[in-house]
Automatic annotation (TrEMBL):
SMART domains found in the cross-reference section: Flavin_Reduct
UniProt cross-references to PANTHER family, sorted A to Z: HCA OPERON TRANSCRIPTIONAL ACTIVATOR HCAR (PTHR30346:SF0), TRANSCRIPTIONAL DUAL REGULATOR HCAR-RELATED (PTHR30346)
Keyword DNA-binding: yes
Family per record: Belongs to the LysR transcriptional regulatory family.
GO CC, alphabetical: protein-DNA complex
GO terms of molecular function: DNA binding; DNA-binding transcription factor activity; FMN binding; oxidoreductase activity, acting on the CH-NH group of donors, NAD or NADP as acceptor
Record protein name field: Flavin reductase (DIM6/NTAB) family NADH-FMN oxidoreductase RutF
Keywords carried by this UniProt record: DNA-binding, Transcription, Transcription regulation
Keyword Acetylation attached: no
Domain Flavin reductase like as annotated: residue spans: 20-169
Length: 389
């Protein structure tokens, strides 16, 4: 394929570096000690070569400008410390990030001296005690072939991973049982976002109905969930339509009407409906989770009522509990299955009289993104569930 002469050509080196940033690898601190002195450096280029032969062998690459490189080669011995997911601070120390805080990199953690004289992190995920078999300069790096003389493994922990220019951790993913399952969306992890107030009343039954689908659930407010869609952290989300912009495609599932929630013994709890003006002098417990907070206060302000906010909480059940204990009324859209608070006190839901801006629950995804088969199955089950409601 011919390159477009109008497009600037990115140098191969830059494309290679960008491409390799996506290749996940463990984070390793290589240490040495001996006649040349003690040294250590963080490296990502470490791999097994062979488990057979006179001794197992592994390969590491160290930049030629690293002060540790000549010392490792001259000492001829080293320890490759594979870090745990909670040990990124050790990686940062040996990458030179804490020069102003540490007079000596080795102050960042505790050490054990191995039989070959090299220092080992006291509690790494695993450490390989090695001897240098050969060293060759390739480009900017020394490529070291190392013979493994002993290993030191932790009983627990997960490896610290580096990919996409940031730290991460590994997570177990079950392999599909069959190719048929793959084609049906089984064994594929679907990352779903759900607004935290109605998630508990929606997701458990959906997950059960989609028994063959591996769903990773992210709960949060509108801002958190829209950010997760944009970043690709989630593929699809069940959220409100408030503030959705041109970055998203969405499909309406349900229209929600605001209602007033009161304690059973509130003086207005026996009314057929509540007028917004009747709430003007009443303390309000606000569900303080965007966009809910602005939506509910906006409903009252549109009717000329300035809400008297006495308490706030981002927790749906905390708000309901405060209302049940007589701390004020609240406005909500989602109606839970129970008419009692979390601690067992009765609540009364009453219609809010008048015409008000309505809110919609929608399925949303990144604009132009072709939904996976798993996401399409999830979307269909969502539509069926709300159609029955």
């Amino acid at each position: 394929m011919n390159a477009d002469p109008q497009m600037p050509q990115i140098p191969l080196r830059d494309r290679f570096v960008a491409g390799m940033s996506h290749a996940a690898c463990t984070v390793n601190v290589v240490t040495t000690d001996g006649p040349a002195g003690r040294a250590g450096v963080t490296v990502s280029a470490m791999a097994s070569v062979s488990a057979d032969g006179e001794a197992p062998t592994l390969l590491i690459c160290v930049h030629h400008l690293s002060p540790a490189a000549p010392k490792i080669i001259e000492n001829g011995v080293l320890c490759v410390n594979v870090l745990r997911e909670d040990q990124s601070y050790i990686s940062e120390a040996f990458a030179g990030r804490f020069k102003d805080e540490l007079g000596d990199k080795f102050e960042c953690t505790d050490w054990v001296v191995l039989a070959n004289g090299t220092p080992r992190v006291a509690d790494p995920l695993v450490a390989f005690e090695c001897r240098v078999l050969s060293a060759e300069r390739v480009g900017t790096h020394h490529v070291l072939l190392c013979g493994v003389e002993d290993t030191h493994s932790a009983r627990l922990g997960s490896p610290l991973i580096y990919a996409n220019r940031s730290y991460g951790s590994s997570r177990r993913i079950e392999a599909p049982r069959s190719m048929r399952g793959v084609l049906n969306g089984e064994g594929i992890k679907l990352k779903v976002g759900c607004f935290h107030t109605f998630g508990p009343f929606l997701m458990p039954s959906l997950i059960r109905q989609l028994g063959g689908l591996d769903i990773e659930l992210l709960e949060g407010d509108q801002r958190r969930l829209t950010e997760s869609l944009v970043s690709g952290e989630t593929e699809i989300a069940v959220i409100y339509d408030n503030d959705l912009d041109e970055r998203f495609d969405w499909q309406a599932l349900s229209v929600l009407k605001p209602y007033v929630l009161m304690a059973e013994d509130h003086p207005m709890a026996r009314q057929a409906e509540i007028l917004p003006t009747e709430l003007a002098a009443e303390p309000m417990v606000l569900l303080d989770a965007p966009p809910s907070s602005a939506y509910f206060t906006g409903i009252l302000e549109a009717q000329g009522v300035e809400p008297l906010i006495a308490h706030r909480s981002a927790s749906f059940e905390m708000v309901r509990g405060m209302v049940a204990h007589g701390l004020g009324y609240t406005l909500l859209c989602t109606k839970p299955a129970s008419s009692m608070s979390y601690d067992g006190l009765p609540l009364v839901a009453l219609p809010l009289a008048g015409d008000h801006a309505l809110s919609q629950i929608v399925l949303a995804w990144r604009k132009g993104h072709a939904l996976s088969s798993a996401a399409q199955r999830f979307a269909q089950k969502c539509r069926e569930k709300f159609a029955r409601a």
